[in-house]
Structure formats: structure tokens, C-alpha cells
């Protein structure tokens, strides 16, 4: 039996699965604490030992990996207009598996460059100008990066007419860079794929090695992309099998939402966005998490009307989890606090991802407007994260089932009536890693995700 091994070097745990290359069956799985304090490959070697004990074929398997260790992929965005640059840059960064740590609008100066440098982005994404439009701002930004000898990788994805001068400026200053197609070639159009591929290229060529996570050259050879990028690719495979899909991943520091849906052209006139909605989307909520971000989860829940401001026990529990991220609940009461935090994190994250609709009355009469991405017709809602994987289907059913409560009355475009399940063996990253290398194995793994349990409906 020929095997693949898919490895995710996570921020907290390194997870590995062995997958049958013929069927996509899950053969074995293992996990170990991510060993950033020594060498991240130490955690992988521990996982490999466990996989070998389960199946000797692992010794001959092709190994594929993704990584979010060492803080993941940090992206700074530089562009023209705040509305277009911030939104387009944020979407590209998130769909590429990164996190936006800084946005500079209106070009780049020595002062704003200093501020950008302080945020320590791994990659800078240069945007600006529709194709054939203004190229002065993006070219000037490239000249500032060149003048001050910027040394971190740059992806230029603005006005295509600015490509030649940008390439000349950055090349003469020895700034590592990649030229990509314009992310916003015209107002109302969003084209992230070329920039997404360029960011992945820079992540592999410069970021992985630059984080000094391992002295072993095998680490860089294993890693194919940033973990969130790979997971989103896995969701695309899942959507081929199930239709419209949304995944909510509740972590210790963030809650990520991935969605792949078929957009309805008839709804295009309902949006009021300069940057068009894209079928494949990822968002990251840095204030919603089970441990490091537990305190702001309570604040978000109160603001959304999901929990009472008078619940002192929950507030105290959130503070305890923030102060001790390794805390494990003991007893039913503490477990109920975790469930409440997870319910709020999932609900608020999905609301932010999906947006809402409202009725507006104007000179033309009654008009329905939407902001965000309509997930109401999602066929499958998948939950991920330790709180869902380790607490059984009943808890998962309550958490995932709560996201639609009150949504219709308040206009939230979140999943309603979708089938729900939990990626209990954490294989979506494996599906994404296999998606382009072996599509049949990827679909096989996605079609019967071993350990995935029904969480209601």
C-alpha cells in the first residue's frame, strides 16, 4: 500500500496523518507539542515514530507539510485608497493563509515605512491603481522600499502598467520580489489568485527559512504552504463533494472561518462593496479564542446580546483561561464555560464573515442591501478546534446549532439548516495538501473523513 504523510506544524501542536494513496483512507494519525523551543522537527520526528508503529509503510511515504508555527505568515499591505486597499489586501492576505498586521494607505513615506517595519511583516503586498489607471502611488511606494533597502519579500499586485518600473526599482536595490496580476483590475472586481500564488512562493522561498524554526534543511523541503492556505484549499475540495461549505475553526487565540459557495449573480446588485465578493473566502478573528483571547470573547458576546453582562462566573473563567492558556476544565461547570465561550466565538465569527442584510427606504422605495457573503444556503457546516473535537457530538451539536439562533430576525446571513459535522481527526489540512498532487486521494479523504461525527441534523 502506497502512503502519503501530511503534516501540519501548528502554533501549538504538530499533527500528522498517514493516508492511503489509492483510496484516500486515513491509515494512522499522531500529534505532538510543536517544539519551537528546540527545533520544530523534533515534534515531527515524534509523530513519525508513532506513525511507523501503526504502519511500517510510513517509512517509504512521500511527506507533505504546511506550517503556521512561529507566528504564521504576517502580511503588510501598502496601497492607494483606504476602502479598496484595506479590503482587497485583507482578503488576499487571508486567502493566502496570512494575517494582515499593517495597512498603509495613500502611498509610502519614510515615516510610514518606519511604522510598517515596526509591525515586522514577513511579506509586503503592494497594491494600487486599476489597470490603466493611476500608477504613480504604487511606483512611488516601490521607490521608497528601494531607497531604504527593504529586505523582506515584496509582492506587487497593482496596476499592470507599473510592473516594469517597479521591477527595475526593486531589482536595482536587491529587494526580493514577485510581480503578480492586479488584485483589483477594475472597480468592483476582485482577482486574488495570482497574488495568492505569489505570496505562497515568497512564503516558501523566504519566510519558512527566515523564522529559524529548524536547523534541518528537511523542514523547508517538506513545507508546501501556510496552514490556513492549505485548509482553505481543503475546503474547496470538500465543496466539490457537498456543495456550499463553511468551516469554523475555534482556536486558542483566533477563530477562523473558511467558506466556499457558488455566488448568485442575481444578488450582485444587493451588495454595496467596492471590492467584489469572492466564492472562496477566509476570515480570521484575532479577538475570538478559547484561551489567549477568551476575555474579548466575553465582551463580544455581551455586545452581540448572546450572553449576560451580569455573568461574573464566565468573566472570571475567561480571565483564568487567558492567564493560563494550558488550562483544562475540571468538572461540569468549567466545561460549561468552555462551551459558552465556543458558542460565542463561533457565532460572532460567522456573523462577521457572512455579514447581514437590511431593508433601506429611499426615494426609489424599499431596497434590500447586503454586506458580506450570504451563507444562509450553505449545505455543510464543519466545526474544527479542540473544544469541538474533544467534547463529543452532543456538545458540538449545541455549539454549531446555536450559530443560527436569532439570525433571521437580525438579518445575519449565517448558515441556517445546514448539515453539521466535526473534523475530529483534523484531516482538512491533509485534504488541502493532497488536492493538487493527488486529487483522487484528496477527494477520497474528504468524502469519508474518518472520525468526523455528525453533530446534529
Describe this structure in words.
This protein is of the alpha/beta class and 457 residues long. Helices cover 39% and strands 22% of the residues. The chain contains 16 helices and 18 strands. The chain has helices at residues 40-54, 82-95, 110-118, 136-147, 163-172, 193-210, 217-222, 227-242, 294-303, 312-323, 332-354, 386-389, 392-401, 407-410, 428-434, 439-447, and strands spanning 3-9, 13-20, 26-33, 62-67, 73-78, 98-104, 123-126, 154-156, 177-179, 223-226, 245-250, 255-260, 280-285, 355-362, 365-372, 380-384, 419-422, 453-454. Strands 13-12-11-16-17-18 form a six-stranded mixed sheet, sandwiched between helices. Helix 8 (227-242) packs across helix 16 (439-447) and helix 15 packs antiparallel against helix 16 (439-447). The protein starts with a strand and ends with a strand. Residues 268-272 have low confidence and may be disordered.
Write the layout of secondary structure elements.
Layout: E1 3-9, E2 13-20, E3 26-33, H1 40-54, E4 62-67, E5 73-78, H2 82-95, E6 98-104, H3 110-118, E7 123-126, H4 136-147, E8 154-156, H5 163-172, E9 177-179, H6 193-210, H7 217-222, E10 223-226, H8 227-242, E11 245-250, E12 255-260, E13 280-285, H9 294-303, H10 312-323, H11 332-354, E14 355-362, E15 365-372, E16 380-384, H12 386-389, H13 392-401, H14 407-410, E17 419-422, H15 428-434, H16 439-447, E18 453-454
Parallel strand pairs: 1-4, 4-10, 5-6, 5-7, 7-8, 8-9, 11-16, 16-17
Antiparallel strand pairs: 1-2, 2-3, 11-12, 12-13, 14-15, 17-18
Amino acid at each position: 500500500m502506497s502512503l502519503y504523510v501530511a503534516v501540519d506544524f501548528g502554533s501549538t501542536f504538530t499533527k500528522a496523518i498517514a493516508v492511503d494513496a489509492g483510496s484516500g483512507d486515513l491509515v494512522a494519525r499522531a500529534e505532538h507539542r510543536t517544539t519551537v523551543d528546540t527545533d520544530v522537527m523534533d515534534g515531527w520526528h515524534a509523530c513519525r515514530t508513532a506513525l511507523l508503529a501503526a504502519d511500517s509503510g510510513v517509512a517509504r511515504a512521500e511527506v507533505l507539510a504546511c506550517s503556521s508555527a512561529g507566528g504564521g505568515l504576517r502580511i503588510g499591505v501598502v496601497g492607494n485608497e483606504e476602502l479598496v486597499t484595506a479590503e482587497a489586501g485583507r482578503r488576499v492576505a487571508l486567502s493566502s493563509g496570512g494575517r494582515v498586521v499593517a495597512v498603509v494607505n495613500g502611498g509610502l513615506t519614510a515615516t510610514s515605512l518606519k511604522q510598517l517595519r515596526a509591525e515586522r511583516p514577513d511579506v509586503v503586498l503592494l497594491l494600487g491603481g486599476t489597470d490603466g489607471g493611476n500608477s504613480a502611488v504604487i511606483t512611488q511606494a516601490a521607490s521608497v522600499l528601494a531607497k531604504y533597502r527593504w529586505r523582506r519579500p515584496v509582492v506587487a499586485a497593482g496596476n499592470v502598467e507599473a510592473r516594469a518600473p517597479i521591477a527595475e526599482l526593486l531589482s536595482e536595490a536587491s529587494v526580493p520580489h514577485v510581480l503578480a496580476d492586479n488584485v483589483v483590475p477594475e472597480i468592483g472586481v476582485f482577482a486574488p489568485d495570482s497574488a495568492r500564488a505569489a505570496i505562497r512562493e515568497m512564503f516558501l522561498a523566504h519566510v519558512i527559512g527566515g523564522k529559524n524554526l529548524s536547523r534541518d534543511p528537511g523542514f523547508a523541503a517538506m513545507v508546501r504552504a501556510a496552514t490556513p492556505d492549505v485548509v482553505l484549499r481543503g475546503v474547496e475540495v470538500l465543496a466539490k463533494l457537498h456543495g456550499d461549505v463553511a468551516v469554523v475553526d475555534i482556536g486558542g487565540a483566533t477563530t477562523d472561518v473558511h467558506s466556499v459557495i457558488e455566488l448568485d449573480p442575481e444578488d450582485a446588485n444587493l451588495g454595496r462593496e467596492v471590492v467584489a465578493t469572492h466564492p472562496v473566502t477566509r476570515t480570521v478573528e484575532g479577538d475570538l479564542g478559547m484561551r489567549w483571547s477568551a476575555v474579548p470573547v466575553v465582551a463580544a458576546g455581551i455586545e452581540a446580546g448572546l450572553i449576560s453582562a451580569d455573568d461574573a462566573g464566565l468573566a472570571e473563567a475567561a480571565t483564568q483561561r487567558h492567564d493560563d492558556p494550558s488550562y483544562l476544565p475540571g468538572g461540569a461547570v468549567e466545561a460549561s464555560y468552555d462551551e459558552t465561550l465556543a458558542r460565542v466565538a463561533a457565532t460572532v465569527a460567522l456573523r462577521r464573515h457572512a455579514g447581514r442584510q437590511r431593508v433601506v427606504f429611499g426615494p426609489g422605495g424599499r431596497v434590500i442591501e447586503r454586506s458580506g457573503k450570504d451563507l444562509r444556503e450553505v449545505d455543510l457546516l464543519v466545526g474544527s478546534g479542540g473544544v469541538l473535537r474533544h467534547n463529543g457530538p452532543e456538545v458540538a451539536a449545541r455549539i454549531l446549532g446555536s450559530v443560527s439562533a436569532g439570525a433571521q430576525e437580525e438579518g445575519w446571513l449565517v448558515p441556517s439548516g445546514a448539515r453539521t459535522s466535526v473534523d475530529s481527526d483534523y484531516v482538512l489540512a491533509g485534504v488541502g495538501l493532497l488536492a493538487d498532487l493527488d486529487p483522487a486521494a484528496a477527494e477520497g479523504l474528504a468524502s469519508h473523513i474518518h472520525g468526523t461525527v455528525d453533530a446534529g441534523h
